[in-house]
Amino acid sequence: MKRVLMIALVATGVCGLLAVAQAQDEVTSVNAVGYVKIVATQGLTMVREDFITIDGADATPSVVIGDQLPLGSKIYTYSGGTYGVPEEYKEITSGFPPVVSGTNWVPNTATLDPGAGFWVSVPQAAAAASYDLVLMGEVPNNPTSTVPIAEGLNLVGYAFPADTKWVETDLAQKAALGDKIYIWDPAAQTYLPPQEYKEITAGFPPVVVGEDWPDTNLVITVGQGLWYKRGAGEGTLDWVETRPYDL
Q: What pTM was estimated for this model as a whole?
């Protein structure tokens, strides 16, 4: 997969990048706008935001997701060991008797920044079985990104718009024995078997020869969130990643 191009970049067929060069008085800068298309099925889909809002607005659901999902859809964020106030896409009414004046996310206070994972819930009564959810914005150009990881469960994601092999991430390499990741399968509406960082043994009687994750080929794709579970007593750590592309 090519991650570094000035004109166009495609990652796994669902992430696009368009770079526009602007020059003034011999000073050139690059504004890169990207997108990722996610199929949100009826039920739950675990997502992450990969981009920065183009106009610098707060990354609220109304800005990041807008009107792409049906009425009754919800967003759930998780931080500090608890879920935040659910966001719901609903009709907005005013006056008496009430008159529908539009639609919006309510309360529209969640922040969907790069590196943060969240759930998208499409109601079973929705007209279609699935909806294309396009997340777009400026491609992060910061040299590194830091996502704090606390003890217990963390709903997070790789903070750059690129596929990455899990074992090559900074977080995977900082893992303590017993740490786990959980990945959601939206098609089956269930979790895949958990991945646990553990001792590797060989021979008989078994001898510990190292530590590793069981699936060393697991790839975290663009737009994909995950649960990371850090054991009690391990303390917090920073998941620090270096930007995997040039702009």
A: 0.85
